[in-house]
Amino acid sequence: MALGIREPGGLQRRTRHLNGPDSLPANTAAQSAPPASDPADTTTASETRIRSDEARFFELDILRGLAAYLVIVFHYKHFLLNDAASFDYTHLPFHTLLAPVYVYGQYFVELFFSISGYVFFWLYADAIGEGRMGLRSFAVARVARLYPLYFVTFVLAALGQGLFHALYGTTFIYVHNSLGNFLLNLFMVQQWVPHAEMTFNGPSWSISVEIFLYAVFFFVAYTRLNRPLSLVAIVIAGLVFRYWQHDPTSDFSRGVPSFFLGGLAFYAVRYLNGAGREVWRRSLDTGLKWVLPALWLLTYVRAQPLVWPLISRDLHLGPPIKFLNSLTIEGFVYGLFPLTLLALGLRRENWRHPWLSLESLRKFAWVGDMSYSIYLIHFPLQLALMLVIQHWAWPQRVAIFASPLTFIAFFAVATGLARLSFIYLEMPMRTYLKRKLSGPRQNPM
Predict the structure, then answer these.
(1) Reduced to 3 states, what is the DSSP secondary structure of residue 32?
(2) Once rounded to an integer, what is the mean pLDDT over residues 359-364?
(3) Among 62, 370, 405, 412, which one has the highest count of C-beta atoms within 10 angstroms of its own C-beta?
């Protein structure tokens, strides 16, 4: 499959705040720590912070946050949907620099799936397989973390789409907003049905896929199928399912291969960190340190619709051009993303540069904390703005949203709302729902 575009797309951004009560405070071997609420726990604040940091992978937190922002860049073109119902790419802010993201940014959804797979196999697989975490506690943790903001943004989007239709006779971007799809969205299963469409708060399609992936993951971990060969088989089955379909770009089918490739990346890191494999680990770490930045740069150049045609036509570079022409979305999604997770896993908190020290990484962890928030909030925010100005003439709308200042202001407002949501909605509701839904302590399953 050559590099191409499918409109519109959304990223998953399933977010996991790894430093929370729904995450196992564990190191790479998933060793559990005493609960912070234990009255007999006399650890100091410093010790608690160290223990908490063991359950965080700051590099992945930051990568997840950056991916969320790139997906929002991809969706910025919603503001420039012209009267002919097509996107005006020529007037997008910073178009030359961000052209690859405006065209292909939707595929960062697979990066979120891969990060989810890595994190879940790291934090939960052993605990589930060994009976230290049951189905109820796992499900409650997921619902408590995801549903409050999901529900709020879904309701806001549904109300906004209804008002938009009343004012302008159509809906904004996502048009299949039927009662049936409303009910499916309410239970987070809108992508589980054949020929599913993006509806209401369109980017939330990936959350629906995540819920399915959680169910598959729990079954795999509970039955102790979380072995590399089993995961390879699941990835292959997922790819076969995807590409044997009439429409291989079906959003539902995008989750399984990437999620379990993320799990394989985790097990590769754990294997290479084992005793007696130091030489292998160092060699691979050194090789990836040089190869990955080059691959990311080449992928960016290959995806540049303004630059690549000139390079491939006017420069007679022979084999290098043929190599770049062979780069596909599959290579980007199923090759570059897992290799990136592998490299970060091997290098985790072991950087030589002071600005990549543990303290420096911790300062930027907020980017990952808000990735789920900003991912679900950005489309309702777009819808609210367009409710006000959709009736303006097309040249006026272009003048507003083609401005770099508007672009920056939109991201600033979305970031502020996401931060408020994370602090005052998501974290309090997670604590409340976990307390209400967990019930008395009981044996797993």
Answers:
(1) coil
(2) 79
(3) 370
